[in-house]
């Protein structure tokens, strides 16, 4: 799945009808069909989806299929086995939080716990740490990042090295890291985080990149290039900048899925979830969408919930694919499954929160309903 | 709408009966009638008000009309369009929060979110920032203001300039700013905030001035003079000082609406909401009141809720008036509509909070009921 660093080749763009009939598409389709039978214990809510695991929808110029996201969640969510011990349901770390932003890393980290991870860490600046700790005693918060204003020029190299050493000694323990929520734009801090991303990659740690992490990656695509364990989750603006930088053109709404496929192929290996009215997910081979309506509220912070949730689901999906006996399952991209699951769960929780709180819905309200949303889809006792 | 700086002309005071028959009054009346038909989907609660959009009440010496504030809220509140994205329902900033006061800016900023804004920022001192952040991860808090005690005399100019630069780079993003909640009285800090107000004015950002911001403006009325996008929300004491300073006389309870009109005209262009048993609102042309009873509890912080709510409603009203096809609507002052809406919403939420919590009602209880109050008036699904 990996490509040599620097291999920025341009792949020919697949036309929709060509893609729909290509061997790669058909294979991926078979794999997903194999993966997504109705779950035996999922209850009546799955009956609608069980008759057809994948539903097709014709888009302007490219084949996009609607994921049966509920079935994905049911398959990849691990059973709550009494014999399991702390950490086995997931250890997540969020790299983010600076003097200016503290809410975003908190939202991502607490969401990971609410989805079902056992441990959730935050690596942030000293200024942010006290505040993030005060939001919740559930999180483990490491005050180790630094911004330019707190580092003398002649100390930069040694401080940067020390930060990497501190994070590195934890890295192997994590099942997934989230880079970017509330990271800010400080150049020294972003340099350090770039080094952390390189280290995570060497250690084969799946990495979700969101928020200011996407600013970093857009300016330095080599950080994720050819990394099949990297997931980018850009919103409208972030996606636009990424397309401009990598494809050197503007967004093409008429051929959205083709452009997304091309973008993934050009970066090479990564999975991208283009957030919007429908979330479009591609790893350069197929394009899946999740379009269940969530909430009309657009309060800031929902992207952070998504990033934390995708981190947990991706690590679960990876375990599921590795453990599964059927050889077909091994060829499904777990990063794609993680994105599908995270997208649906956020939409469902946002929908429930909006039903309850209407216009006054804020991000915390949505987080509080992650648990119920997951339980509705995938009962803990199944 | 603007007037040259320094144009402190004295306008002849309208007598009540003259005003009631003046062309300006009649025109404004027609405009508000045009604006306020019953909303089709507002439910039965609107039936009482729909029969008569404006009800009149004779005051001692001037015509004041009772706004149909529910109808105003229903008209200016934007529909929750599924195609909208983050930020389009409003981005608000509160300038306030110092070593002594942290609750007030939090109340104003969180109220903006609960009314329905997408993003809410606070610009405060470093001392205040950690605490305000810890109240809620929903807010984006910038620790950039400084008080005299933390700035050496020889640094004042450079620090002041740096603060303005920091705030200025965000300013264009905001739909409205609130100046004053928990600002304190430190002279250096107030000087900096005066510069921020001048910048906001140049950038045409609507500005709600409350609390210590009114102390600043009372001592320097030029900061808002001739600014049609400025709203002052004085309580009894703040209004008294403003009248003394600008009109050089004491409060005249017998001719309250005339005096308010004269005050608006003398300052020029601004909208003033004189808070009290009835909230009197004027832009120098008409005087509207909102008199629905709220709560007998007078716990501190309700003015901050009001300021944050007025900021959101004013920005919505501005969009509504700009977008509306009817030429009459374009001539209604959106700042007046924002005040009317904010006044009613606070009163309704305070009333619900008091029914529930009686003597123990505090500001947080009221904020928690902003959502239900708005939903009762203007259902999200309409």
UniProtKB/TrEMBL annotation, chains A, B:
Main function: Catalyzes the dehydration of the S-form of NAD(P)HX at the expense of ATP, which is converted to ADP. Together with NAD(P)HX epimerase, which catalyzes the epimerization of the S- and R-forms, the enzyme allows the repair of both epimers of NAD(P)HX, a damaged form of NAD(P)H that is a result of enzymatic or heat-dependent hydration.
Recorded GO CC terms: chloroplast; cytosol; mitochondrion
Cofactors named for this entry: Mg(2+)
Domain YjeF C-terminal: 69-377
Name used for this protein in its record: ATP-dependent (S)-NAD(P)H-hydrate dehydratase
Pfam families: Carb_kinase (PF01256)
GO biological process, one term: metabolite repair
Sections of the chain in a coiled coil: none
Catalytic activity: (6S)-NADHX + ATP = ADP + phosphate + NADH + H(+); (6S)-NADPHX + ATP = ADP + phosphate + NADPH + H(+)
Similarity comment: Belongs to the NnrD/CARKD family.
PROSITE patterns: YJEF_C_3
Gene Ontology MF annotations: ATP binding; ATP-dependent NAD(P)H-hydrate dehydratase activity
Record-listed ATP binding positions: 275-279, 294-303
SUPFAM superfamilies per the UniProt record, alphabetical: Ribokinase-like
UniProt entry keywords in alphabetical sequence: ATP-binding, Lyase, NAD, NADP, Nucleotide-binding, Phosphoprotein
Residues annotated for (6S)-NADPHX binding in this entry: 182, 235-241, 304
EC number(s) from the headed UniProt entry: 4.2.1.93
């Amino acid at each position: 799945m990996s490509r040599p660093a620097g291999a920025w080749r341009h792949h020919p763009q697949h036309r929709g009808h060509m893609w729909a009939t290509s061997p790669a598409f058909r294979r991926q389709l078979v794999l997903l069909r194999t993966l997504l039978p109705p779950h035996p214990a999922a209850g009546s809510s799955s009956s609608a989806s069980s008759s057809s695991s994948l539903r097709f929808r014709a888009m302007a110029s490219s084949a996009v299929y609607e994921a049966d996201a509920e079935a994905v969640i049911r398959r990849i969510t691990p059973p709550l086995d009494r014999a399991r011990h702390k950490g086995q349901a997931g250890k997540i770390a969020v790299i983010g939080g600076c003097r200016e932003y503290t809410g975003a890393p908190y939202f991502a980290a607490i969401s990971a716990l609410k989805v079902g991870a056992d441990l959730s860490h935050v690596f942030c600046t000293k200024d942010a740490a006290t505040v993030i700790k005060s939001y919740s005693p559930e999180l483990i918060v490491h005050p180790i990042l630094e911004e330019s204003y707190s580092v003398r020029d002649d100390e930069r190299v040694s401080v940067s090295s020390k930060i990497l050493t501190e994070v590195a000694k934890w890295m192997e323990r994590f099942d997934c890291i989230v880079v970017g929520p509330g990271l800010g734009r400080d150049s020294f801090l972003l340099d350090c985080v770039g080094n952390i991303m390189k280290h995570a990659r060497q250690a084969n740690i799946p990495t979700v990149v969101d928020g200011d992490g996407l600013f970093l990656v857009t300016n330095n695509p080599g950080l994720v290039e050819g990394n099949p364990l990297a997931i980018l989750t850009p919103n409208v603006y972030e996606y636009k900048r990424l397309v401009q930088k990598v494809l050197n053109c503007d967004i093409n709404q008429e051929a959205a899925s083709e452009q997304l496929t091309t973008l993934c192929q050009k970066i090479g290996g990564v999975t991208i979830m283009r957030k919007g009215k429908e979330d479009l997910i591609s790893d350069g081979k197929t394009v899946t969408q999740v379009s269940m309506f969530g909430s009309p509220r657009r309060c800031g912070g929902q992207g952070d919930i998504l990033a934390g949730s995708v981190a947990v689901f991706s690590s679960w999906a990876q375990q599921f694919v590795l453990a599964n006996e059927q050889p077909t399952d091994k060829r499904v991209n777990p990063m794609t499954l993680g994105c599908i699951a995270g997208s649906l769960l956020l939409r469902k929780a946002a929908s429930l929160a909006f039903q309850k709180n209407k216009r006054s819905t804020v991000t915390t309200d949505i987080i509080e309903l992650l648990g119920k949303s997951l339980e509705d889809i995938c009962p803990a006792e199944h």
